[in-house]
Amino acid sequence: MADTPTLDLRNGVALRDLPDGAIVRGSVDAEEAILLRRGDAFFAVGAHCTHYQGPLAEGLIVDDTVRCPWHHACFSLRSGDALRAPALDPIACWRVERVGDHVHVREKIAGPGPRTAPTAAGSPGTPASVVIVGGGAAGLSAADMLRREGYEGAITMFSADDSPPCDRPNLSKDFLAGTAPDDWIPLRAPEYYAERQIGLELNARVASIDVQRNRVQLDNGDQREFEALLLATGADPVRLAIPGAADAQIHYLRTFADSRAIVAKAVSAKRVVVVGASFIGLEVAASLRARGIDVHVVGPESVPLERVLGPEVGRFVRELHELHGVAFHLGRTVSRIDGNRITLTDATTVDADFVVIGVGVRPAIALAEQAGLTIDRGIAVDQYLETSARGVFAAGDAARWPDPHSGDRIRIEHWVVAERQGQVAALNILGRRRPFDAVPFFWSQHYDVTINYVGHAENWDAIAIDGTLAAHDCAVTYKRAGRTLAVATIARDLESLRAERALESADR
Ligand SMILES: Cc1cc2nc3c(=O)[nH]c(=O)nc-3n(C[C@H](O)[C@H](O)[C@H](O)COP(=O)(O)OP(=O)(O)OC[C@H]3O[C@@H](n4cnc5c(N)ncnc54)[C@H](O)[C@@H]3O)c2cc1C
Ligand code: FES
Which of 368, 412, 431 lies closest to 146, judged by CA? Predict the structure, then answer.
């Protein structure tokens, strides 16, 4: 069957085919594009999100922006600018002209340059230099935003990792399953750092911070001065001391190197035990099943993910994994390991070639503690993500912030939150006084099922399910005292975007 020819948007679209609110798909000079109408305003932008190529025609238009249906990135319809992570790069944007009763897509609008005039280092309110501790989601997005905002001072990013900032969520998903190649994993091409003059130092662990002298010291003794500092140290996997376990048998998953080490084992392994029925543990289970490996999941809970998603979704996720051949040993943990034999606390045994432990993470706060910053089960920050020391900011998994939506001080471990906090911290380093008020969002992928979650519900008194979990089509609303705290969806991306919007507006 011949492909349906795409509509050439340069040729013009009749107004009658473009009612208010409509989105028309087509192409402009062989690039896929969408044409939108909002009242008397017309916009033409690239059809795909720059994060994972999500289809923007299926997204949500909010004022003069479009939000991506997959992981809620947001783009300006006027400039194509990537306004909110997880997309960091703009989409194409064209000028649109109305001629009589037709609208025509004209020339491409130059991509967004720095949003403000160059900000010379040391000019009033602008630090002469910025040091970022952490080469992850928050660290990279902060550095990126500083340059997008025209900051011209020195940026140094220290990372204890041995590889440049990477797409961490992919490490338990497609990369581990063998469906994403190595070159998908770095967040930025190698030349990006030199081009933007971001001094990325790998294998560089900061050992201490002197907030009085504005100085960091690395574990090799080198010292660097800063005028503003961002702590984006993330979180470390909780380690288990299992009697009899040899280091080579046990794997944790946080870094690209960790994921590569598991892939290397998976090549010849027949069976794995995953300790932890959490998001990471279960994503690892799904990815290793995709490689044809026998997977046994061990965890102390009786229903996986119940604490975060409730019993109904937890049972559904368990059944989904069982359908794909995963064996669960719940209500138990590992008591010892002898060679390939893993003994559980109820004395049952499972033989496995290796073990992956995913039992949660702890925020990496040692540096902040040593520096004397206020700690509150994470690095305590204010609404501007500033710590108790002036000019020292924190973002991402390590930071606990006052969430305006729940009214609680929260710390969460979501990729999009970390990136957005990095961006807001960067703006505040430049003196913009921008409160962090994004509604939290995360996604998790299990085989062909993706769960999207907006909001934050640590506890709830009611769960309402619209649709059917078994049909992989539903929205699950978590409420307390009649108020919606969070919504989880499966295959209802637009509903997830609308829920995000409703949560944003509910608190205004
Ligand atoms: C395998 C995996 C899958 C995930 N999947 C999802 C998902 O599907 N959806 C989702 O929302 N979230 C997911 N997450 C969570 C998400 O990746 C984190 O929330 C996010 O990476 C946090 O960003 P961060 O910048 O705070 O920390 P990180 O990205 O962990 O970066 C921390 C950085 O700090 C560095 N560092 C720490 N201490 C020091 C020091 N003393 N000196 C120098 N550098 C230091 C580390 O080396 C690292 O570079 C996943 C996490 C993992 C590990
Ligand atoms: S594909 Fe658009 S946000 Fe991920």
Answer: 431
pLDDT one-digit tens code per residue, 190-222 = 999 999 999 999 999 999 999 999 999 999 999
Give the number of other Cβ atoms within 10 Å of residue 462's Cβ: 11
Give the ligand whose atoms come closest to the C-alpha of residue 421. 1
Nearest to 10 by CA among 146, 86, 102: 102
Tokens at residue 341, please? 């034999």
Report whether 83 contacts 75 (CB < 8 A): yes
Predicted pLDDT of residue 2: 45
pLDDT 10s digits, 2-34: 455 589 999 999 999 999 988 999 999 999 999
Helix or strand holding residue 389 (H, E): none
Is the CB of 87 within 6 Å of ligand 2? yes
pTM given for the model: 0.96
**Ligand 1: centre distance to CA 11 (Å):** 47
Q: What percent of the chain has pLDDT over 70?
A: 96
**In this structure, which residue's CA is closest to atom 14 in ligand 1?**
169
Asked if residue 414 has its Cβ within 6 Å of ligand 2, the reply is no
> Can you count the helices (H) and strands (E) in the chain?
9, 36
CA atoms within 13 A on the CB side of 444: 21
Q: How far is the CA of 416 from the centre of ligand 2 (A)?
A: 10
What's the gap in Å between 483 CA and the centre of ligand 1?
31
